[in-house]
Design a protein that fits this description.
Strand content of chain B: 25-35%
Helix content of chain B: 25-40%
Order of helices and strands of chain A: HHHHHHHH
Number of helices of chain A: 8
Order of helices and strands of chain B: EEEHEEHEHHHEHEHEE
CATH topology of chain A: MetI-like fold
Structural class of chain A: mainly alpha
Oligomer: heterodimer
Number of strands of chain B: 10
């Protein structure tokens, strides 16, 4: 294949690959990230408050999820759910698995961030008459979220790339689309390099979003 | 009738008895100072009185209502706390709130006063401690003395009948100590009931109507007791 032909293959496939990035990969990562953060906050709060039964159950959840590969979790869900009579679109299965998987890791990030808020903050809250939940809402969670934000965003960036694993359960996302195009042309390397660049592009944009988010959340007057 | 009376308060941390039978009482408008060497139980006593530590035994009579300290419930604690204020040694201002919101938060969250009204009231309290010019500053942008003055404003905002001060100037250098003591002196003059754990002997002598000296978890000496 001539250089000219490779260039045409790459430029011609670019919109087709990018389309699946914007239509499948990014929505999958962003939706799963939002859900995983909600799971993380809930699980971290149950553990922080040392709720009986629910607290240890959260530890169990984290133990199972962190102890098994994401790819295996995808496979087990994909083949297991139909056996339970649950027939849902593979995209939805992928969203659920990514959310539950990332939720376990982010829950630990959130818990650590909550525990890093000095005990005096909570005591001061009680002394002005606030309840536990009011303390959570106004003091502990905002401070913990600010601390956890860079780590949580790390998780999002990591997830954008991990979504390529969804190809294993028939979700046609950006990587699968690239494979299909590469298969038609028998020219793999240029296309895989191309898709690598698009992932890099996505993550670069997200890094800027992170910086903007950190500014938006502010640093409460602490000089950086 | 005493505003607050404590009878035979006991508190241990594991095997170590920190408070072994402390009793005291304070009338409205009185300023009680608590002094004593480090480790004598002063701070623990204050924390037990505002339920930041759970007492092992003892009775509290607050404004005529009697409570068993060991078995006191959450709702009762909340009710008493709503009528008292607490000023910490290391200020404990809410790090994520401006000076104004530090003072206003207890009003608009715990007492459900509309935000605008709560902030107006908070501003009045900041003026009271001479901090109105720093309303928009975060705690990290304030000096220790300024933070402690905001903390006093925060305690005042809830219109307490009694304010506990736990070594409010121990973390401050002499200049900053002076500005905080000045605010406390004024409060005492206005008739605020205060219980102050302090190492400032001169200040304690000057403003307190009652002085307690603690040693090894017991009250060794009480001065100015009105019998």
């Amino acid at each position: 294949m001539t250089g000219q032909a490779v260039w045409e293959l790459v430029t011609g496939s670019f919109p087709k690959i990018l389309e699946y990035g914007l239509k499948v990969t990014l929505p999958l990562a962003v939706i799963a990230f939002i859900l995983s953060t909600l799971i993380a906050v809930g699980v971290a709060m149950l553990q922080y408050a040392k709720v009986p039964v629910a607290g240890p159950l959260c530890r169990f959840y984290i133990w199972i999820i962190r102890g098994t590969p994401l790819l295996v979790q995808l496979m087990v869900s994909f083949y297991g759910l139909p056996l339970l009579g649950i027939h849902i679109h593979p995209f939805i299965v992928a969203v659920a698995v990514f959310s539950i998987n990332e939720g376990a890791y982010s829950a630990e990030t959130m818990r650590a961030a909550m525990e890093a808020v000095p005990a005096g903050q909570l005591e001061a809250g009680y002394c002005v008459g606030m309840s536990y939940m009011q303390n959570m809402h106004h003091i502990i969670l905002p401070q913990a979220f600010r601390t956890a934000f860079p780590s949580l965003f790390n998780a999002l960036i990591s997830m954008v790339k991990d979504t390529s694993l969804a190809s294993a359960i028939t979700v046609v996302e950006m990587f699968t689309r690239t494979k299909q195009i590469a298969g038609q042309s028998y020219n793999y390397l240029p296309l895989y390099l191309e898709v690598a660049l698009i992932y890099l592009l996505f993550c670069t944009v997200l890094s800027f979003v992170q910086r903007g988010g950190e500014k938006l959340l502010g640093s409460y007057g602490v000089r950086k | 009738m005493a505003l607050l009376e404590i009878k035979d308060l006991h508190k241990s941390f594991k095997e170590t008895e920190v408070l072994s039978g402390v009793s005291l009482s304070i009338e409205r408008g009185e300023v009680m100072s608590i002094q004593g060497p480090s480790g004598s139980g002063k701070t623990t006593l204050l924390r037990c009185m505002n339920f930041l530590e759970k007492s092992d035994a003892g009775t509290m009579i607050f404004d005529g209502e009697e409570y068993e300290l060991a078995g006191i419930g959450k709702a009762q604690i909340a009710r008493i706390r709503r009528r008292t204020g607490f000023v910490f040694q290391n200020y404990n201002l809410f790090a994520n709130k401006t000076a104004l919101d530090n003072v206003a938060l207890g009003l608009y969250s715990a007492r459900r006063i509309p935000k605008k009204e709560a902030r107006e009231k908070a501003m009045e309290q900041l003026k009271h401690v001479g901090m109105e010019g720093f309303a928009a500053s975060y705690p990290a942008q304030l000096s220790g003395g300024q933070q402690q003055r905001v903390a006093i404003a925060r305690a005042l905002a809830c219109e307490p009948e009694l304010i506990y001060f736990d070594e409010p100037t121990s973390a401050l250098d002499p200049d900053l100590t002076a500005e905080v003591l000045e605010v406390m002196r004024r409060l005492a003059g206005e008739g605020m009931t205060m219980i102050v754990v302090t190492h400032e002997t001169a200040f304690a002598k000057e403003v307190s109507t009652k002085a307690i000296y603690m040693e090894k978890g017991k009250i060794k000496e009480t001065k100015g007791e009105k019998l």
